[in-house]
Amino acid sequence: xxxxxxxxxxxxxxxxxxxxxxxxxxxxxxxxxxxxxxxxxxxxxxxxxxxxxxxxxxxxxxxxxxxxxxxxxxxxxxxxxxxxxxxxxxxxxxxxxxxxxxxxxxxxxxxxxxxxxxxxxxxxxxxxxxxxxxxxxxxxxxxxxxxxxxxxxxxxxxxxxxxxxxxxxxxxxxxxxxxxxxxxxxxxxxxxxxxxxxxxxxxxxxxxxxxxxxxxxxxxxxxxxxxxxxxxxxxxxxxxxxxxxxxxxxxxxxxxxxxxxxxxxxxxxxxxxxxxxxxxxxxxxxxxxxxxxxxxxxxxxxxxxxxxxxxxxxxxxxxxxxxxxxxxxxxx
Amino acid sequence: xxxxxxxxxxxxxxxxxxxxxxxxxxxxxxxxxxxxxxxxxxxxxxxxxxxxxxxxxxxxxxxxxxxxxxxxxxxxxxxxxxxxxxxxxxxxxxxxxxxxxxxxxxxxxxxxxxxxxxxxxxxxxxxxxxxxxxxxxxxxxxxxxxxxxxxxxxxxxxxxxxxxxxxxxxxxxxxxxxxxxxxxxxxxxxxxxxxxxxxxxxxxxxxxxxxxxxxxxxxxxxxxxxxxxxxxxxxxxxxxxxxxxxxxxxxxxxxxxxx
Lengths: 332, 259
What we know:
The complex is a heterodimer. By secondary structure, chain A is an alpha/beta fold. In chain A, about 35% of the residues lie in helices and about 25% in strands. Chain A has twelve helices and 14 strands. Chain A has helices at about 55-60, 85-90, 105-115, 125-130, 145-155, 175-190, 200-210, 225-230, 250-255, 275-290, 305-310, 325-330, and strands at about 15-25, 30-40, 45, 70-75, 75-80, 90-95, 165, 195-200, 210-215, 220-225, 235-245, 260-265, 265-270, 290-300. In chain A, helix 6 (about 175-190) links the parallel strand 7 (about 165) and strand 8 (about 195-200). The radius of gyration of chain A is 23 Å and the shape is elongated. Chain B has helices at about 5-15, 15-30, 30-50, 65-95, 95-100, 110-140, 145-165, 175-190, 205-210, 215-225, 235-255. The N and C termini of chain B lie far apart (about 45 Å). The mean pLDDT of chain B is about 90. By secondary structure, chain B is mainly α. The interface between A and B is medium-sized, with 30 and 29 residues.
């Protein structure tokens, strides 16, 4: 430890570190032994469907929830050791669901948040940074959804944090505002800030994250750089197939260049090496069986496929129409 | 231009208590309905009742408006103290703003003190508005010491802020907190002698009525305004009010839910 017995350094150690986190709610094991580490200058993405335990995990990292087991350290300092304020001076948090008092103006809210921190940025500069200069004197209730998101980001940045927690920061943003947010996060990371990002967007994860952790049912199923996780699938292409007639999963798995075949409802999902030898063989087999092709889709593998492979579920799956808030409440 | 003035101004701008208090004041001032209920409604009520009861009682020679006005001030301190804390706290909890504040280094004490401070500023305005109105239109004057009046109003406000914070400590919806607020305030509306003398209730109820904070506040306000009491005469009521406020705050802080 750099600063001796007290612990807590802004130096080499991980900015955010969790070991063996467990959180139980009545009837639910929401988080079941999660380990995470984010180093300064690094962005870690937390991916998972609703109810996977993302929010619970993040709230434990942010010191909002006390874990039932395990430990969280920020810059080497654990929550609840009398130095919570020391930690809070160094983190910025953007909650997806938080709303601001509608009657207060943008600049008033940024000033309010700035006043909580001993050191921080100039309020006007932060507004420039997030592109809200033109809305400086607008009441928060009159902002669009995207502008509110950026106001929220401004309030997270105004304390000049070294670690940033972002919960779906670009949901509801138009493409331009989304790119702007990404640039802000990238700039923050390049200056040595640590970012923990929760997102549903594969594009966002692939663009911003050095590493992603895939979370499902309270456990980290896989962790690594996005490209490596995709590569580990061993597929050049992913083939989605719906067939009318008698074809088995094993049969499809035996076709040339097929690495793996799984079934998801009506759809077969095939991880395929080379497409050229695969396609004719597939059609021939279907012909021999008298089966008819109802749907065939081929795409390059993405994190979405990694997730599907690991969990058998889609990342965007909200569980058959169960809305987000409901799914989240159920997770509590 | 004013380089010297910049330092102190920046210090105020970066002071969390100042900023939190300003936020409270702004939110209130920009909410026309809240302004109506806290300032306009009591004055209208006073006006209506004052016109109806301005003539002296033929038997006692006392005017009802003189009895009524301190009670209305008490009632107003109760309502604004409880609603002024309970409603915005629950609103902020529901909107996850409290949770967001929790992630910052903001001190709880600053957060609570900002509510107290903003209420205090409104309190001064409310009390002056009501007594001023009574004095201008109905010639009702404060006979006792202004210091005693200030202390009693302050203690009353703290009592109801404490209770308001307690009621608002856990609910997540405005509907729930509204129900509890009314439940807490209703007995005092009826029993605490705002519109009539609470001694009319049967004697066995008197100890319970006397223990209610609004009773203490109304009695103390009347003692000062109508009977010219000084600070010494209203010590028991003031102590009771401070006890209610302290109990409310202590319990509320223990039970308080940020998420």
